[in-house]
Backbone:
């Protein structure tokens, strides 16, 4: 793609086109790990650009333009498929469907839903649930794959027992064709689009059939042999049992599941292990109304076929974890896939042959389709062989997938899909007649093959390789069979790298399924793969294999994760994602001394000198404390519990701390408050990667608690709570510090007292109001406190609590601190997503208890003009007790204004602008007579231009010597640019030099190109 073409795309799509080389690498693959011997046959698959059209008009324009310019277009939804369909084998443009993600309409009468192609199943189903409906069927990639992607790829999944293949459940599809027209496909014409992987057109939206959402009954059954399983299903079909879904695993899979690591929280298992028997385990779902009929007949069938009903616990566990099939990948860390469809009548034979011929542990998942393509029952078998893609032997194990395919074909089966790898099997997969139609249509509308080249039909090197591989399969098989596979996590057994060994293992264990992508706020605030957990794992693989290097942008990508922890819960492989990024923060910033976000340097200095991040004076830390409570709870008093206010409630949103202590007092809690000696909890330094400083602060805070005689810390701020509850104990353990401190959140104490009747709100005159509750990530997912704040809200008279769509452990992050510090406009977009939910729920007020969430949501509400008020929970409860508190909004907006201005200043552009206001002083401050020399050069035409190449070398050396001299004028200029409160301006002479010392060595390289021309202009007299 040439520069003119790039310029066109940039003008047309602005921030929805991406040419960044590394970003393009992240859009060059799907879930499959291709072995090193096969990769060269595929060739380069890194696109020239990624484009994200946001509506049909843009799709059409893009198609017209690409066809005119002979540029290949490869559609990509969530890339959760593994057949190479999304690989841009002719480079060109990857067309990302990310922004076509809306549910358009639901027709209850007709029982259909119309949605854009790029919407994820989970989201469609959530919209349907509000109308009492649900989808007919879905793939087990439901949390991370799209509706359009499934029609394009083709497939069966949960619900296929009753509803068959997905294509049968599609009413119509609206498709952008290669000639730039848009056409609606229905009935038999859908064959030209379904399973065609975008080779004939891009699905823009589609209408699919849905069903009433009835409650399901789930049971699990076990049986020893595949032949028994086959008999059971055959009898079920014969008896016409009204099942909705029938899926099963083989004994090897059961064994692997029993061994796969559990989801962890704070380094401890966060779920119970449910052991599966070493047998075939099937999970059956049917509508509750059919339970009597199903159960009566099923018992009889099982009795006949050596099956038994397994415990409810197993059924519940298997159903709850039905999407988490990738947990077993942790034992690989790679899996070689083999996916086939076989007639039900050959299930037993097929399984037995695989066991006989394949000398590797093949773990299998099966899905029964009652009415298969030829009307008879068939079974989709997804097999995996654990292997290690980093070893050459992976090539041999990979070849066994061909062996499985051959066994399937010998039993009347076929490949599941075509894509890039199985084009040679297309007639078996789709049928001869359909292929002929598809080819004729393709020739007619896309003769040059620009739409998803190299897929489904046509010829490529891969096809010959597959054919040859198939012929020589019996010769290759022994190699695959003789590879010794170690099954299990072995985090230590690595080529040494600078990345922690467990993080390396996780990078390869990540299945790239994409469940973590859509709901990651770092991702949805920006929209690019590099910003998602999946993208970061892939980047790490690229780094480990020597194809990527650290740069500041990549460091920032790991730093800017908001630590919301939602990805940990969503991950199909139960990977500890957020803790892995946390480890990298320590490695990158604390160990390697790379640059953290510049505002953290300012906070660090304020923290070192005054113990808080807002650059207030320590002597003012306790100013908020109510005068009348000082004797009872104030500084200097000993008590069993200590209230910890944290920085933001102490210096900005005073109402939070004031209301919290009022509530605790009214509830009869014996507590004290340390006052001035209290320090920031350290969260900002932990996430900034400044871990030495964090450890220092933690030590001081632990000492403060000891001085008060307390053994319990009561927090109001969720980040402080998380430190005292989870992080300090862990760090204290590692550093050998005595730690016997319990942590309670004030809402937990109050909820208990409300429950026991010890604390009651009086009837009050508060106007009835509808509120919603924002679960902040750090009190919710990090500390598990979900119900106590709700109990408190419900106890306040005249308050009606409504829930937002994403609540409790699924709650969305507000987008605070790290996004706000790094990318304020992105923070406002993420914040709006959260506030939109509150508006949709009909709430007038959003209640929160996290000071940082409140700052972020208040700033967002103002920026985006949202019709909701953000109120602190303790404040509302305190109001209900008859107390008034100062309005925090003026302080929030003025202090945020200062912060925001500092964020803009502490960028290369900000510093360049600042330097532009002080050229005379900067030139005079140059050491060794350089300033004078520069002035003389300025007078000689062209001389400075000759010197320009030296500036990047010169400036980093000179600047440290110049800064002390120009500091007074710099402080004046900063004060003029940023109207600061007095206490901050007073501290600037001490803070600013330290901040500059920390930042400039990292940033100067980016500043020099920005100041070279302005300085030359000044010296040559073009500007003053
Ligand atoms: C954990 C896991 C479980 C899975 N379970 C199942 C399962 O139960 N059943 C099953 O069938 N598959 C399953 N899959 C495979 C995969 O999820 C499905 O094929 C899914 O439908 C792909 O959807 P996607 O949105 O990721 O599409 P992608 O993978 O992005 O695309 C699939 C193909 O369609 C094309 N395409 C995508 N969108 C469009 C469009 N709008 N217009 C035209 N062409 C388009 C792409 O070019 C590509 O060729 C699973 C995968 C994983 C990782
Ligand atoms: S913790 Fe939150 S922001 Fe960070 S990667 Fe996970 S989901 Fe994204
Ligand atoms: S991190 Fe987990 S959820 Fe995300 S792509 Fe990897 S395996 Fe899937």
Residues:
């Amino acid at each position: 793609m040439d520069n003119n073409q790039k310029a066109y795309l940039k003008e047309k799509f602005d921030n929805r086109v991406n040419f960044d080389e590394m970003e393009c690498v992240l859009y060059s693959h799907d879930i499959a790990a291709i072995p090193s011997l096969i990769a060269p046959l595929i060739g380069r698959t890194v696109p020239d650009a990624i484009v994200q059209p946001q509506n049909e008009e843009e799709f059409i324009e893009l198609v017209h333009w690409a066809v005119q310019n002979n540029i290949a277009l490869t559609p990509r939804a969530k890339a959760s498929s593994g057949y190479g369909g999304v690989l841009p084998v002719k480079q060109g443009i990857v067309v990302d469907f990310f922004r076509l993600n809306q549910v358009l309409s639901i027709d209850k009468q007709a029982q259909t839903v119309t949605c854009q192609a790029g919407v994820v199943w989970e989201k469609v189903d959530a919209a349907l649930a509000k109308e009492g409906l649900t989808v007919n069927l879905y793939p087990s990639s439901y949390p991370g794959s799209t509706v359009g992607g499934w029609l394009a790829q083709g497939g069966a999944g949960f619900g296929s027992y009753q509803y068959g293949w997905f294509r049968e459940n599609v009413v119509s599809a609206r498709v952008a064709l290669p000639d730039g027209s848009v056409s609606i496909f229905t009935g038999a014409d859908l064959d030209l689009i379904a399973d065609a992987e975008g080779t004939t057109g891009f699905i823009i939206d589609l209408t699919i059939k849905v069903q009433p959402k009835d409650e399901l009954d789930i049971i699990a059954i076990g049986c020893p042999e595949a032949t028994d399983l086959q008999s059971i299903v055959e009898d079920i079909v014969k008896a016409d049992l009204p099942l909705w879904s029938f899926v099963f695993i083989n004994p090897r899979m059961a064994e692997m599941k029993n061994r796969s690591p559990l989801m962890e929280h704070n380094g401890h298992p966060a779920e119970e292990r449910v052991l599966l028997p070493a047998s075939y385990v099937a999970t059956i779902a049917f509508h509750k109304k059919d339970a009597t009929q199903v159960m009566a007949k099923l018992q009889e069938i099982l009795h006949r076929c050596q099956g038994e009903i397994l415990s409810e616990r197993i059924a519940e566990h298997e159903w709850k974890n039905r999407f988490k099939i990738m947990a077993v990948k942790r034992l690989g860390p790679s899996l070689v896939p083999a996916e086939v469809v076989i007639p039900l009548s050959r299930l037993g034979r097929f399984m037995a042959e695989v066991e006989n011929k394949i000398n590797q542990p093949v773990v299998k998942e099966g899905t029964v389709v009652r009415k298969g393509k030829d009307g008879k029952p068939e079974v989709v078998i997804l097999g995996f062989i654990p292997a290690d893609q980093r070893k050459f032997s992976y090539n041999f194990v990979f070849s066994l997938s061909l062996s499985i395919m051959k066994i399937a074909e010998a039993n009347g089966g076929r490949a599941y899909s075509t894509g890039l790898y199985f084009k040679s099997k297309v007639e078996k997969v789709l049928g001869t007649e359909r292929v002929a139609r598809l080819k004729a249509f393709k020739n007619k509308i896309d003769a040059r093959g620009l739409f998803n080249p190299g897929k489904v039909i046509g010829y490529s090197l891969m096809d010959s390789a597959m054919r040859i591989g198939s012929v020589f399969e019996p010769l290759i098989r022994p190699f695959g069979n003789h590879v010794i596979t170690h099954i299990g996590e072995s985090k230590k057994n690595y080529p040494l790298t600078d990345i922690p060994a467990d993080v390396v293992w996780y990078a390869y264990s990540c299945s790239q399924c994409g469940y973590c992508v859509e709901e990651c706020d770092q991702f949805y605030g920006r929209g690019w793969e590099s910003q998602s957990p999946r993208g970061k794992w892939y980047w790490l693989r690229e780094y480990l294999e020597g194809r990527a290097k650290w740069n500041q942008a990549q460091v920032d990508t790991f730093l800017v994760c908001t630590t919301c922890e939602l990805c940990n819960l969503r991950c199909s492989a139960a990977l500890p994602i957020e803790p892995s990024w946390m480890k990298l923060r320590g490695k990158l910033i604390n160990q390697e001394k790379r640059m953290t976000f510049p505002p953290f340097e300012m906070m660090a200095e304020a923290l070192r000198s005054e113990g808080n991040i807002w650059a207030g004076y320590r002597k003012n830390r306790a100013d908020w404390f109510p005068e009348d409570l000082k004797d009872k709870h104030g500084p200097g008093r000993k008590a069993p519990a200590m209230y910890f206010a944290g920085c933001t409630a102490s210096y900005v949103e005073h109402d939070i701390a004031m209301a919290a202590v009022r509530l605790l007092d009214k509830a009869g809690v014996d507590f004290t408050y340390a006052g001035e000696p209290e320090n920031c909890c350290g969260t900002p330094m932990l996430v900034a990667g400044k871990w030495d400083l964090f450890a220092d602060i933690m030590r001081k805070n632990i000492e403060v608690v000891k001085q008060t005689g307390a053994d319990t810390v009561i927090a109001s701020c969720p980040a402080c709570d998380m430190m005292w509850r989870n992080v300090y104990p862990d760090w204290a353990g590692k550093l050998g510090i005595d730690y016997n401190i319990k942590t309670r959140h004030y809402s937990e104490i109050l909820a208990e007292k409300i429950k026991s009747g010890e604390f009651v709100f009086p009837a009050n005159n508060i106007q009835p109001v509808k509120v919603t509750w924002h679960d902040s990530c750090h009190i919710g997912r990090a500390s598990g406190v979900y119900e106590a704040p709700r109990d408190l809200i419900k106890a306040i008279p005249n308050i009606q609590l409504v829930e937002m769509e994403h609540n409790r452990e699924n709650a969305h992050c507000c987008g605070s601190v790290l996004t706000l510090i790094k990318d304020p406009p992105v923070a406002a977009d993420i914040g709006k997503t959260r506030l939109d939910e509150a508006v949709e729920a009909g709430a007038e007020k959003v209640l929160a208890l996290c000071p940082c969430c409140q700052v972020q949501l208040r700033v967002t509400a103002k920026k985006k003009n949202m019709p909701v008020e953000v109120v602190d929970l303790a404040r509302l409860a305190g109001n209900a007790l008859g107390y008034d508190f100062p309005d925090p909004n003026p302080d929030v907006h003025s202090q945020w204004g200062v912060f925001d201005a500092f964020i803009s200043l502490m960028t290369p552009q900000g510093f360049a602008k600042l330097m532009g206001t002080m050229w005379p002083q900067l030139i005079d401050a140059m050491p060794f007579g350089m300033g004078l020399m520069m002035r003389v050069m300025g007078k000689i035409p062209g001389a400075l231009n000759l010197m320009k190449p030296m500036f990047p070398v010169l400036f980093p050396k000179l600047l440290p010597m110049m800064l002390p001299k120009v500091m007074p004028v710099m402080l004046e200029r900063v004060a003029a640019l940023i109207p600061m409160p007095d206490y901050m301006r007073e501290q600037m002479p001490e803070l600013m030099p330290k901040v500059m010392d920390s930042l400039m060595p990292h940033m100067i390289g980016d500043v020099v190109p920005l100041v070279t021309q302005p300085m030359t202009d000044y010296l040559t007299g073009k500007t003053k």
Summary: Residues 61 and 180 are 8 Å apart (CA to CA). Residues 30-31, 74-81, 85-86, 97, 117, 139-141, 145-146, 148-150, 152-153, 155-157, 197-198, 202-203, 325-326, 452, 455, 511, 513, 572 surround flavin-adenine dinucleotide (ligand 1) (CB under 6 Å). The chain has 43 helices and 28 strands. The first strand starts at residue 17 and ends at 18.
